[in-house]
């Protein structure tokens, strides 16, 4: 026989209320949790069979050296050889580290540790695993994942760093670095992506078509349909599409200086652009097929955009639930 | 696609440990008159054994053929059970009883189990390895798996759920979660304390991550 009476401590409703009070989740904490989830997913993706093969290191990783200056290329090839020396052990370490970063960010007492490690790891992977996003090769494009998805993890770790700083009336990303610096980061990111669209390699008739035409293979029907449709439009229209894309990205970038009422429009435009990049240019990160190592840049650009959504009230920015929790646990103020 | 055999074995062993801990929770709660959410504990036992069977084919818990169909039926029934629980939760919430949404993740997990066993059973899935068992029988044969977006949605849910439980683990450890009840011979007069609430949370985390791993392995 079971009974619901005589339970020591709070009732279900009281427990939920206690959890809500002690572990309030503001907008920044939600964004941290999304970032944590992406890291956990990346860790799991790293456990796929292909990543344990020498082909992953000698073809996928070493391939990132192409187009980079010789001294950078040689460091990437060297790293690929290192991974190939024991791909099982080293890749297991990669996956476990990424899983650990995600769990550390999700666990409030270790959120700072998780974010700090994620910054270091993202820089390492950006160099050796993504060839600096191929930025130096002259072929990088927002549509193909520039500036390198993993770099955006580091940017997010900075923008979502827990701090008790009060920036009421601005946005989440401004809390750790201040409003001016946060706006500069936004502008550099989006205007930088716009500039990539204006590289000579992008201003050719088939520049966009060549990027997306092969992306539909192995994708779910609706994704393949959208990619194929855009691929048809992009044929021989690379110059126009690159310029239009550059204008849109640049407007998003400079739009951050507009008055507060317009920033929501700018952020929504950024979210739409991120979704377009993710679906059309990145085919949902090319996760289906067993060779996707991460979700690619689309979701991360969207997460960054969400961090710039204007806060509705000052109450949202007044307290830091992570700092409160850690402070309560340690008896110290964060 | 089973993924690296040794890695699947590690996840399988973790599942067996998790199932054992969940079973010990039920027994301990029964004998010591401690409070636990036995519905969730039972679910975790069942899920741990099922996933271990898929991850480690040599356990012969899950084999192609009748046993897979039996498991599929079991998980359909469990899904219906948790569907009813979620509906009951919604009704209680509508009556202002308070939030008891912890059944929803277990409904989705049960649905994911139905999905995975369904792929093993369905002849159209390309799982035509007659001698295969466990997750080896879940290969999509080089093509896109059936209902790939659903698979992806399950993965996202599992990862999100694991992260949320980790976030709230300290609170769960101090206050417990779910519908805590005393099972066994009834109250001995003293108020029953929740039984190791943190362990229940940790089990849910490892279950969700392992299930996400298994669903991701279907991508290939």
Commentary on this structure:
- The complex is a heterodimer of chains A (334) and B (220).
- By secondary structure, chain A is mainly alpha-helical.
- Chain A has one domain.
- In chain A, helix 5 packs antiparallel against helix 6 and helix 12 packs antiparallel against helix 13.
- The N terminus and C terminus of chain A are likely disordered.
- The radius of gyration of chain B is 18 Å and the shape is globular.
- Chain B starts with a helix and ends with a helix.
- At the A-B interface, helix 1, helix 2 and helix 5 of A face helix 5, strand 2 and helix 6 of B.
Query: What proportion strand of chain A?
Result: under 5%
- Give the low-confidence spans of chain A: 1-5, 326-334
Q: What characterizes the major β-sheet of chain B?
A: 2 strands, antiparallel
**Integer count of domains of chain A:** 1
Beginning-to-end CA distance, first to last residue of chain B? 7 Å
Helix amount of chain A: 55-70%
Radius of gyration of chain B: 18 Å
Q: Summarize the amount of helix of chain B as a percent range.
A: 55-70%
C-alpha end-to-end distance of chain A: 48 Å
Name the assembly state: heterodimer
Backbone shape of chain B: globular
Please tell me what the overall shape of chain A is: globular
Biggest β-sheet of chain A: count, sense, barrel? none
- CA-based gyration radius of chain A: 22 Å
How many E-type strands of chain A?
A: 0
Total helices of chain A: the number is 16
**Helix and strand element order of chain B:** HEHHHHEH
SSE succession of chain A: HHHHHHHHHHHHHHHH
Structural class of chain A: mainly alpha
Percentage beta strand of chain B: under 5%
The largest sheet of chain B has its strands arranged as 1-2
Give descriptors for this structure.
heterodimer, A: mainly alpha, globular, disordered C terminus, B: two-stranded antiparallel ribbon, 2% strand
């Amino acid at each position: 026989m079971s009974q619901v009476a005589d339970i020591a401590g709070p009732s279900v409703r009281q427990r939920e209320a206690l959890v809500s009070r002690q572990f309030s989740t503001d907008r920044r904490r939600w964004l941290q949790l999304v970032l944590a989830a992406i890291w956990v997913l990346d860790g799991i993706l790293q456990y796929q069979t292909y990543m344990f093969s020498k082909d992953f290191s000698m073809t996928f990783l070493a391939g990132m050296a192409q187009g980079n200056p010789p001294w950078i290329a040689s460091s990437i090839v060297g790293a690929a050889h290192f991974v190939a020396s024991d791909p099982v052990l080293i890749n297991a370490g990669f996956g476990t580290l990424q899983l650990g970063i995600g769990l550390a960010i999700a666990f409030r007492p270790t959120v700072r540790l998780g974010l700090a490690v994620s910054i270091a790891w993202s820089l390492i992977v950006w160099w050796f695993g993504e060839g600096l996003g191929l930025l130096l090769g002259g072929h990088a494009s927002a549509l193909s994942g520039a500036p390198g998805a993993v770099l955006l993890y580091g940017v997010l770790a900075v923008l979502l760093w827990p701090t008790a700083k009060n920036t009421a009336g601005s946005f989440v990303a401004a809390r750790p670095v201040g409003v001016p610096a946060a706006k500069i980061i936004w502008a550099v990111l989006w205007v930088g992506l716009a500039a990539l669209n204006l590289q000579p390699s992008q201003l050719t008739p088939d520049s966009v078509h060549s990027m997306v035409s092969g992306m539909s293979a192995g994708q779910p029907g609706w994704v393949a349909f959208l990619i194929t449709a855009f691929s048809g439009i992009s044929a021989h229209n690379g110059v126009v599409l690159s310029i239009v894309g550059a204008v849109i990205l640049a407007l998003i970038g400079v739009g951050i200086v507009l008055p507060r009422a317009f920033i929501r429009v700018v952020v929504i435009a950024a979210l739409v652009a991120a979704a377009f990049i993710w679906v059309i240019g990145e085919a949902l990160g090319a996760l289906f097929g067993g060779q996707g190592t991460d979700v690619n840049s689309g979701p991360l650009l969207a997460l960054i955009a969400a961090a710039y959504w204007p806060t509705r009230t000052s109450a949202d920015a007044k307290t830091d639930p992570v700092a409160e929790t850690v402070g309560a646990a340690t008896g110290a103020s964060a | 696609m089973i993924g690296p055999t040794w890695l699947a074995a590690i996840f399988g062993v973790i599942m067996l440990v998790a199932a054992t801990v969940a079973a010990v929770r039920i027994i301990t709660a029964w004998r010591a008159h401690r409070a636990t959410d036995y519905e969730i504990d039972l679910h975790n036992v069942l899920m741990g054994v099922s996933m271990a069977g898929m991850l480690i084919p040599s356990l012969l818990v899950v084999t192609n053929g009748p046993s897979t169909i039996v498991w599929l039926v079991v998980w359909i029934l469990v899904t219906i059970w948790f569907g009813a629980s979620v509906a009951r939760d919604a009704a209680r919430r509508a009556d202002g009883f308070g939030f008891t949404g912890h059944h929803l993740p277990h409904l989705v997990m049960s649905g994911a189990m139905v999905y995975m066993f369904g792929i093993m059973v369905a002849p159209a899935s390309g799982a035509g390895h007659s001698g295969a068992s466990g997750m080896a029988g879940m290969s999509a044969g080089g093509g896109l798996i059936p209902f790939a977006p659903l698979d992806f949605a399950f993965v996202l849910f599992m990862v999100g759920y694991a992260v949320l439980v980790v976030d709230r683990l300290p609170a769960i450890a101090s206050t417990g979660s779910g519908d805590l009840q005393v099972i066994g011979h009834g109250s001995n007069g003293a108020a029953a304390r929740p039984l190791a609430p943190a362990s229940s949370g940790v089990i849910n985390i490892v279950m969700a991550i392992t299930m996400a791993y298994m669903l991701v392995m279907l991508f290939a």
